């Protein structure tokens, strides 16, 4: 049994793992929201839709969780954690326990943000693993406080900065950790010793998207955390989908191709898409904008060098792309790097400031340090990334590491070994 939060950035990587397990002959069920059941059934998995858990629509989370309305930045993170992830966990656990009673499984492997996975596994005494489409970057020595988009700092001043900001961030996470313990009590589980950073993950096995080289340097990573690269790799993924009717323009392009994406969660085009279009209009580039499946149409007319589609299949687009301008969604960043493409990253909320900070720190792109950059900042970042070969060289180094880790095949290998 796999679990996946009903969001594109979570469901699609888990679907790739499910598809690989099905191809190996396993009987795979997936517990997810009804809006994503068809996606998993396409690869041969059976689905168990959310029932006791509220069947959320990622296009309008505020309809189910009114406190999310109008929230951005850190306030959005807190409400997401409290209402969506922690708040739905007991109901998720009830759904999973009913599914297990009807048809027991041999292994439960869950999306870390589907926290009901942990609760059900503990209540049932089930062997379980985490399959994480999100970045697994734990606190540790020399690692700056998470959530602030900071990079490592050396010397007494740097250590003092981390102590002060770490204490401030810890105050917020302690509130959520107490909420987690209260959630455990609600489902009849005793208190445990997990912290806010670790409560999402299985202590037995974590199959993590990404690579060690994408994190800051560290030597304290627990042995049960295993990075496997990109969990949407082309070889194990289903058909990439239809191409836009203007695709011939991409194939005929004689200038650099720039892909602009704002992901599938925060989709107000005024944040990044429109400033990027303005920044690149009239330049000797060909701009391909992926709007996601719920962004309103862009106000026209568009510049002559811009093409727009709701979704653009990455297996076709990224091999032709020179630079990606992105809001820092983890899956899209991994796919760009796997194709050796450097990035301009505007990470505004959730985990995206951390992703942007690491991309900038490693030198695989430019961190714009905001989710709503000005056109001039995007233009300057594009000029830097497109003219300095060090960015592409670093992206290629990280891409080689991601490819070497094995992707969905390695994920399936680890889950099979955990079964035994």
From TrEMBL:
UniProt keyword Transferase, yes or no: yes
Domain of life (superkingdom): Bacteria
CDD domains: GT1_Gtf-like (cd03784)
UniProt keyword annotation of Cell membrane present: no
Record domain Erythromycin biosynthesis protein CIII-like C-terminal: where: 287-402
SUPFAM superfamilies according to UniProt: UDP-Glycosyltransferase/glycogen phosphorylase
Protein name per UniProt: Glycosyltransferase, MGT family
Source organism: Georgenia satyanarayanai
């Amino acid at each position: 049994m796999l679990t996946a939060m009903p969001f594109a950035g979570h469901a699609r990587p888990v679907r790739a793992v499910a598809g690989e397990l099905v191809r190996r002959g396993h009987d795979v069920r997936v517990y997810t929201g009804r809006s994503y059941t068809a996606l998993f059934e396409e690869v041969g998995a059976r689905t168990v839709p959310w029932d006791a858990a509220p069947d959320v629509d990622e296009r309008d989370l505020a309809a189910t969780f009114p406190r999310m309305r109008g929230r951005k930045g850190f306030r959005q993170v807190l409400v997401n954690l409290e209402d969506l992830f922690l708040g739905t966990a007991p109901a998720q656990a009830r759904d999973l326990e009913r599914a297990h009673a009807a048809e027991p499984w041999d292994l439960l492997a869950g999306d870390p943000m589907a926290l009901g996975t942990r609760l059900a596994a503990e209540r049932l005494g089930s062997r379980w693993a985490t399959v994480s489409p999100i970045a697994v970057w734990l606190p540790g020595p020399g690692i700056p406080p998470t959530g602030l988009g900071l990079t490592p700092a050396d010397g007494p001043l740097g250590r003092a900065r981390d102590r002060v900001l770490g204490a401030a961030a810890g105050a917020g996470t302690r509130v959520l950790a107490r909420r987690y313990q209260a959630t455990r009590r609600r489902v009849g589980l005793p208190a445990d010793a997990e912290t806010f950073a670790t409560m999402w993950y299985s202590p037995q096995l974590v199959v993590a998207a990404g690579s060690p080289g994408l994190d800051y340097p560290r030597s304290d990573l627990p042995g049960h955390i295993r990075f496997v690269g990109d969990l949407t790799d082309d070889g194990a993924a289903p058909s990439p989908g239809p191409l836009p009717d203007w695709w011939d323009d991409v194939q005929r392009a004689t200038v650099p191709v720039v892909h602009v994406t704002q992901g599938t969660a925060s989709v107000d085009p005024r944040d990044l898409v429109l400033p990027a279009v303005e920044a690149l209009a009239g330049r000797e580039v060909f701009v391909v904008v992926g709007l996601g499946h719920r962004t309103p149409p862009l106000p026209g007319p568009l510049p002559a060098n811009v093409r727009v589609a709701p979704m653009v299949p990455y297996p076709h687009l990224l091999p032709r792309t020179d630079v990606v301008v992105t809001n820092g969604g983890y899956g899209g960043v991994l796919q760009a790097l796997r194709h050796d493409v450097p990035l301009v990253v505007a990470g505004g909320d959730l985990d995206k400031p951390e992703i942007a900070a690491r991309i900038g720190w490693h030198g695989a792109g430019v961190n714009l340090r905001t989710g709503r950059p000005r056109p001039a900042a995007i233009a300057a970042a594009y000029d830097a990334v497109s003219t300095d070969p060090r960015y592409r060289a670093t992206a290629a180094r990280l891409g080689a590491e991601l490819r070497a880790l094995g992707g969905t095949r390695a994920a399936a290998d680890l889950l099979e070994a955990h079964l035994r």
